[in-house]
Inverse folding.
């Protein structure tokens, strides 16, 4: 096993991966091997899996949904909550039998969980049939690790503690041809006291603007219409760069790229929402009217214990400013219930805030203790029963609000980017509004990939039904 501290990737390291990709492509020319990737967690992970798939595709592998057909199986893991980790270990255990039946299969496990020392120990001791283990900081090295593993009987383990460089030019196999994720910043410096992300994803590192712009220009040339800029905290973009540029500046540059029609971004931290960003959202025609703004709690005491660096009052001020400047903006959020020390009164503050903001939707979570985070050691951990009851109450409240908000859309005509046929009803198409709501409507499949106007006729908490008005 190799363990490395903070590291700079050299040109030779990158060149080596390219050489291995070419060697593997020659080796696989007449063999048509297949790969399967299971991804857990956030959009960052989904996008990392697109990079793994890109490298595998260039090495001559094709994708399969069927585990039984795969020659390489990868698990890209998430550790943000304990529940995810338990599920992943369960899935990995199920593969033991497959590996016994087909010993030549390569099983790899990577992503955030691998940055936790105890997890790697557990894999070494309890899951010896895993072939490759690597982390978030050395994803670019996957071709080398795969080649090594094909020539070895032991588990190849390579985890880095951090990576100060950004490796550009990793091939990406995107899931579809209309909407694309684009990384703009990696890592997080915020250290919210409940969160493990800064420990497994490292410090903030912004990509150079010209790398981002070039990637988006080629996406536009390939026919992509919508891009979502990705980062744990996109609003810190540029803080670490030698040139003077911030997130809003970047948005102005991206808005000028011909062919891209919609721009989204996630995730934003309320402490970094500047007036400049709000005005950019108001003024830039391609920037969609949707902001995901995690609040986490409505109680000032809990926000402080969480180290969120804003108050309930400041958060509400931002929401008002957003609504004053960007009519019809959809606002979504993340909320944690049962953070250590959360009393009934604190939880009531959260419910009151939800009633006041009236989110379009909310991702709600039960606080999960994460090893090594400050909140793990905090006093007054909340009883599991209470956490579950609070979650249920919060979900019920938000559902009512989501339904009411969608109901207000009835009779309105909205622009929809048509993404495909509806999974439930093959006669219907499905797409999203600029506010990121899903709309189903009857129309011919030739409209897939186009922008159309749809009148909303019926709504639920998560989806809306419409009728085509104009193409
Ligand atoms: N427990 C519960 N939820 C968490 N999140 C992050 N860490 C934890 C944790 N330890 C939630 C936050 C964050 C979202 C991605 O996951 O709400 O915004
Ligand atoms: Fe975690 Fe807070 Fe960073 Fe988000 S901003 S990734 S919640 S530490």
């Amino acid at each position: 096993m190799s363990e490395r501290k903070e590291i700079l990737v050299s040109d030779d390291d990158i060149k080596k991966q390219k050489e291995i990709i070419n060697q593997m492509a020659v080796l696989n020319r007449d063999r048509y091997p297949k790969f399967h990737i299971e991804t857990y967690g956030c959009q960052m992970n989904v996008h990392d899996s697109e990079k793994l798939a890109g490298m595998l595709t260039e090495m001559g592998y094709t994708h399969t949904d069927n585990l039984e057909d795969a020659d390489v199986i990868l698990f890209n893991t998430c550790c943000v909550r304990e529940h995810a980790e338990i599920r992943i270990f369960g899935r990995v255990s199920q593969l033991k039998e497959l590996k016994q039946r087909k010993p030549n299969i390569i099983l790899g496990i990577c992503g955030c969980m691998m940055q936790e020392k105890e997890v790697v120990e557990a894999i070494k001791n309890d899951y010896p049939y895993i072939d490759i283990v690597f982390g978030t900081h050395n994803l670019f090295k996957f071709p080398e690790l795969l080649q090594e593993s094909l020539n070895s009987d032991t588990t190849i383990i390579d985890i880095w503690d951090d990576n100060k460089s950004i490796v550009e030019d990793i091939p990406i196999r995107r899931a579809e041809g209309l909407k694309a994720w684009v990384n703009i910043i990696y890592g997080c410096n915020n250290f919210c006291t409940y969160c493990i992300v800064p420990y497994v994803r490292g410090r903030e590192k912004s990509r150079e603007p010209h790398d981002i712009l070039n990637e988006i220009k080629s996406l536009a040339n390939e026919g992509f219409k919508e891009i979502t800029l990705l980062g744990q905290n996109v609003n810190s973009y540029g803080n670490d760069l030698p040139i003077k540029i911030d997130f809003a500046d970047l948005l102005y540059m991206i808005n000028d790229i011909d062919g891209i029609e919609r721009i989204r971004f996630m995730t934003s931290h309320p402490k970094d929402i500047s007036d400049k960003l709000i005005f950019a959202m108001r003024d830039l025609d391609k920037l969609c009217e949707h902001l995901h703004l995690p609040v986490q709690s409505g109680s000032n005491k809990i926000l402080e214990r969480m180290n969120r660096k804003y108050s309930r009052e400041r958060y509400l001020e931002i929401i008002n400013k957003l609504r004053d400047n960007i009519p019809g903006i959809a606002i979504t959020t993340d909320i944690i219930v049962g953070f250590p020390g959360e009393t009934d009164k604190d939880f009531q503050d959260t419910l009151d805030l939800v009633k006041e903001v009236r989110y379009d939707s909310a991702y709600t979570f039960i606080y999960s203790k994460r090893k090594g985070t400050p909140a793990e050691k905090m006093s007054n951990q909340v009883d599991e029963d209470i956490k579950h009851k609070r979650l249920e109450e919060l979900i019920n409240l938000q559902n009512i609000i989501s339904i009411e908000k969608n109901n207000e859309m009835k009779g309105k005509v909205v622009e929809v980017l048509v993404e495909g046929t509806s999974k439930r009803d093959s006669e219907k198409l499905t797409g999203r509004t600029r506010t990121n709501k899903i709309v189903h409507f009857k129309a011919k499949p030739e409209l897939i990939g186009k922008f159309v106007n749809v009148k909303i006729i019926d709504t639920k908490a998560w989806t809306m039904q419409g009728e085509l008005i104009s193409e």
User: Anything to note?
Assistant: The chain has three domains: 5-163, 179-407, 413-470.
